[in-house]
Design a protein that fits this description.
The protein is mostly beta strands. The chain has one helix and 22 strands. The strands form five sheets. Strands 7, 8, 11, 12, 13, 14, 15, 18, 20 and 21 form a ten-stranded mixed beta sheet that branches.
Length: about 325
C-alpha cells in the first residue's frame, strides 16, 4: 500500500487503518520512496485494525511511503468445466481461478499474483487452498471487482478451448487378482468410466494448476447431463488428461502374473496377463494404465503396443467388443 505523508521536523506519527483483521504486525515493513527515514516503533491496534508508526525523517516535507505486510485468510484454488459434445468426440474446457477472501476485511487490489509451490507457509499446510498440491504456479491476474470479506470471486484463467475427447473404460494400475474364494467380490479391481481429453499448448496456456473438474454432456436436443466430477493433477505438458466419472459395471478385469525372475542385483523381469470381459451391449474403448518402480522397459506386448505417458506410466489402448473377452499380455523389465 502507498501512503502520502507530510513530515514535520523530528518524530512523526504515521497511522494506517483499514488493514485486514488477520494482518501479522511482526512482518510489516514501512519504507520511504525517494527519501530516508528511521522507524523507531510500531503499534498494532487489533480492534481498530490499524498500525501506528513513529518515524524520524531525514528532512521535513512531503513523502511517499510504501507499507508491505502479510496476512492470512486470502487463498485461491483452480476449477475446470468440461462439456462433452453430443458427437462424443470433442469437449470444451474452461479454466477458472477462485479467489477466496476470509481475512475479515474487504480488499480492492488492482492485481493479484497467485503463487503455489514456493511459500513455506502454504506448502506446510496441505489442506490450504493455494498450497503446493496445486503444482508450481505463479501467475498475475487483474481483479475487476472488490474482494468483499467472506466472499469468493471467480476469474477465467483461460479462454474456452475445444479439445479432442472420448469416453473410455479405464483400468488404472490394478493389482494382481486374488483368487482366494474367501475374499469378497467388492475387493475385485474396478473399471472406471472416464473422459479422455487431449490438451496442447496451442489450446491452453500450460502449465495449469491442479483443480476440480465438473464434466457435462449435451444431448441432441440440447439438454445438459452431469457426467461426474474429478480432481486433476497439475497439467504441465501436452497429452492426455483423464477424468474418472464412476464405475463401469459392464466390464470386469482380472490380472495375473505369469512369470517373475531376478536378472541382476536390482533388476527384475515380470510377465502379466490382463483379461477383460465386456458383458455390455456396446463395444468398449479401453485404456490400461500400468505403473512400475524405478526405470522400466516393456519388452513384449500383445495384441497392442504400450506407450509411455508424460506421468511415467505404460498405456495400452484397445477395443473390447460387446459380449467378448480379450487378453493383454506384456513383459516388463525394471531396475530399482
Amino acid at each position: 500500500r502507498t501512503i502520502q505523508a507530510e513530515f514535520q521536523p523530528g518524530p512523526n506519527r504515521v497511522t494506517v487503518g483499514g488493514l485486514p483483521a488477520t494482518v501479522d504486525p511482526r512482518g510489516v515493513e514501512l519504507a520511504a520512496l525517494g527519501t530516508r527515514m528511521r522507524v523507531e516503533s510500531k503499534v498494532f491496534d487489533s480492534a481498530a485494525r490499524s498500525l501506528s508508526f513513529m518515524v524520524v525523517p531525514e528532512a521535513p516535507g512531503p513523502a511517499s511511503l510504501r507499507l508491505t505486510y502479510t496476512f492470512t485468510g486470502l487463498a485461491w484454488n483452480a476449477s475446470y468445466v468440461a462439456v462433452l459434445d453430443p458427437r462424443l468426440d470433442e469437449a470444451t474446457l474452461s479454466a477458472w481461478y477462485c479467489l477466496s477472501n476470509k481475512c475479515g476485511s474487504s480488499l480492492a487490489p488492482r492485481s493479484i499474483t497467485l503463487v503455489a509451490g514456493h511459500s513455506n507457509v502454504l506448502a506446510g499446510k496441505a489442506d490450504v487452498r493455494g498450497a503446493s498440491g496445486l503444482g508450481l504456479t505463479m501467475v498475475s491476474v487483474s481483479c475487476p471487482d472488490t474482494l468483499r470479506d467472506n466472499s469468493d470471486c471467480y476469474l477465467q484463467a483461460a479462454g474456452t478451448a475445444r479439445l479432442p475427447a472420448r469416453i473410455v473404460y479405464l483400468i488404472d494400475r490394478i493389482g494382481v487378482t486374488v483368487t482366494d474364494p474367501a475374499v469378497s467380490r467388492k475387493d475385485e479391481p474396478r473399471v472406471q468410466l472416464a473422459l479422455d481429453m487431449t490438451v496442447s499448448p496451442l489450446d491452453l496456456p500450460l502449465p495449469l494448476p491442479a483443480g476440480r473438474v465438473t464434466a457435462y454432456t449435451h444431448s441432441a436436443d440440447g439438454s445438459a447431463h452431469l457426467l461426474g466430477e474429478d480432481s486433476v493433477a497439475p497439467i504441465r505438458t501436452a497429452g492426455s488428461v483423464m477424468l474418472r466419472l464412476g464405475a463401469a459395471p459392464s466390464l470386469r478385469v482380472e490380472k495375473v502374473r505369469t512369470d517373475q525372475k531376478k536378472i541382476g542385483t536390482s533388476s527384475w523381469e515380470e510377465s502379466y496377463q490382463i483379461r477383460i470381459t465386456n458383458s455390455g451391449s456396446v463395444q468398449a474403448e479401453v485404456v490400461i494404465l500400468e505403473e512400475f518402480p524405478g526405470e522400466w522397459t516393456i519388452l513384449q506386448s500383445a495384441p497392442v503396443p504400450a506407450a509411455r505417458t508424460s506421468g511415467g506410466s505404460a498405456r495400452f489402448n484397445l477395443s473390447a467388443p460387446a459380449g467378448a473377452r480379450i487378453e493383454v499380455l506384456y513383459k516388463v523389465r525394471y531396475t530399482l
